[in-house]
Input
Amino acid sequence: MNDKLNAAHVLIVDDEQDIRDASERIIAKMGCPVTKASRGEEALEIVGGQPVDIVLLDMKMPGMGGMEALGRMREINPAILVIVITGYATVETAIAAMKKGAYDFIPKPFEPDQLRIVVNRALERVRLSREAELLEQKRRRTLLDLDTEKSRVRTILESLPNGVVVTDDKGGVVLTNPAVYHLLGRPVAKASGARIDELLCDAGICNLVLEISRGKHIDYDDIPTCEMAIGDDRFLMVKAQPVLGERGECLGAVINLMDITAMKVLDRLKSEFVAKVSHELRSPLSTIHEQLALVLSDMVGNASDQDQHILSRAKEKTQGLISLIGDLLDLSRIEAGAICTEFKPVRVEDLLKGIVDFLRARTDARQQTLNLNLPDAPLPPVSADPLALESIFGNLISNAIIYTPEGGAITVRADLAGINVRVAVSGTGFGIEAQHLEKIFERFYRVKNDKTRYITGTGLGLPIVKGLVDSLSGRISVESTPGQGSTFTVLLPVQEG
Output
């Protein structure tokens, strides 16, 4: 037996001294400390004054009876294991004792081996209980200990320029560093025990932190990055992630706060600059484009093929610049929040039917098949700006047509995925290599290889789609296999109520 098991304390309560002494000799040889009592009242004093793990209790004693002593012992220490000893070994007595909380039952007279078996069984129960308690204590070593532990980890946290907030599995704040209060513009305070909504003023972010703390978001990729405004002139980026234990259980959440005010100002200035330059360029470019078109129409049959080719290329380039300016202006409007302002219930299947019918002429010209797969039951409406949805799915389907060779197939599927309407646009096209997948939603990023280098584009279509999907509180993802095609999937939350 290990030391923890040997330390189990046994109390023998019997009015017969011979039984007390004999039982003590047997149990002492098992390595357990033993205490004896001749009456129920004396036993209660011992149980109340020192730790006792196992009690051998006689049912028939003068004064306080065994049943009463059993009940009062269990009140003092509910974890105590009481083995009832009696010369009146009836089924009714056993049932009554078990109802009172007795652990086991042994009748008088008993052989030493009988006593050893019963006590060993109780000792095993004590050992298992102690092991379970030790495991529970280890599990309870939560992040609350970090708040009082003066360690190198604490020193590192306090020196970080970014704010760090740690919560427990109920969303209570257990740890902060001084940068949190600097970023929030508050005096440094001890936040342990505070609620997260007492620290952060954004209700949406607080709800997200509570969900993460309670284990709702275990997948890191499923957790959005949020922004929080502090007054009218300061902005923080908030990123929260779960803290997982050794067995994968969620112990709480860690929230990182970063000051992005300078970045927001720079983005605003950049957007204003792009919008101003784009407006200034679009008008003269449109004029040049129209004039080139007019010259080309007049030159039909009156100019050499080389001259017509040069002018046609110039006309294509001006059209490309006009498209680029249009995309830049769209991005500027998305960033300024000037798009997706008129939300209304939209039936996604009806909108997709219109887009597919409109684009079918393009697929027919390229000898492609364009399929729309819709569920039998109507999909619930989504609350969105219809023009934004048309831009999202129009861009995705157009891209699938462009990047699918002639004779290929484009499939659009719509269904219900939990609380979201899911739309997947697939094409049997060139596919995208893995190293490009994380960058295709960046501005001006285009995948160029031998198969795609002749395809023109601005590299802004997918960033526009991503911006619109984000503004609708949706998500977009892509799966692709080079040489087989790509699938872009959009999830849009259904309209509440």
Q: What stands out?
A: Confidence is low (pLDDT under 50) at residues 1-5. Residues 264-335 form a domain with the Helix Hairpins fold (CATH 1.10.287).
